[in-house]
Amino acid sequence: MPYGDAMTTRARSEERRAEIVRAALEVIAERGYRGASLATVAERVGLTQQGLLHHFRTKESLLVAVLEDRDKWDAVPEGSWRLDLLASLVEYNAMRPGIVQTFAALLGESVTEGHPARTFFTGRYGAVRANMASVLRAEYGERLPSGLTPERAAPLLVAVMDGLQYQWLLDPDSVDMPGAFQDFLTLLGENP
């Protein structure tokens, strides 16, 4: 096979994988991970289940691809996060409820023993806490105005962000997610 044909085939395969991941995200948002079937995802993209398995060998590998793809949307170069960018991320999330809902549903399901996303979320949260500690250290040094170290405050920052998402998903008319996050930054000592 000539080199150009191999590149075209690989590009088509990558496009197809991306299409499958988008469809899986939709199905998981609608039905949750446990209720989502490979057959339903395959049908959405015009494949048989066997055809889908050519691209993703298992439902678990497809789930991890969905989670990794979702994280790419929020990616910021290492060391580039700042508290004001976190506020912008909260505002951005308020504009994409379907993505936030899928993430929240998968996160909730992943706390059960043996869930295929548990390892992903455990690793992700370790990295997120470390990133948030770096953000807080860059902003405040070794101690926040409250006296907490960045490492002690980082899980609280993550909990506020995720907790606001759950409250907003349940009652978006009553919870101003971006406004509440700005209030939290004020508690940290940031200027609103």
Give an overview of the whole structure.
There is one protein chain. This protein is mainly alpha-helical and 192 residues long. It is 74% helix and 0% strand. The chain has nine helices and no strands. Helix 2 (38-44) packs across helix 3 (49-55) and helix 7 packs across helix 8 (150-170). It is elongated and about 55 Å long.
Give a brief rundown of this model.
With 192 residues, this protein is mostly helical. The protein contains nine helices and no strands.
Percentage of residues assigned to helices: over 70%
Largest sheet: none
Derived from helix and strand composition plus strand pairing, the structural class reads: mainly alpha
Q: What value does the average pLDDT take?
A: 86
Distance separating the two termini: 60 Å
Poorly predicted runs are none
Rounded radius of gyration (Å): 19 Å
Secondary-structure element order, as H and E?
HHHHHHHHH
Count of extended strands: 0
Give the amount of beta strand, in percent. Answer: under 5%
Determine the number of helices (DSSP H or I, runs of at least 4 residues): 9
Shape: elongated
SSE blueprint:
Layout: H1 3-35, H2 38-44, H3 49-55, H4 59-73, H5 83-93, H6 97-110, H7 118-140, H8 150-170, H9 177-188
Helix pairs in contact: 1-2, 1-4, 1-6, 2-3, 5-9, 6-8, 7-8, 8-9
Salient structural properties:
9 helices; 192 residues
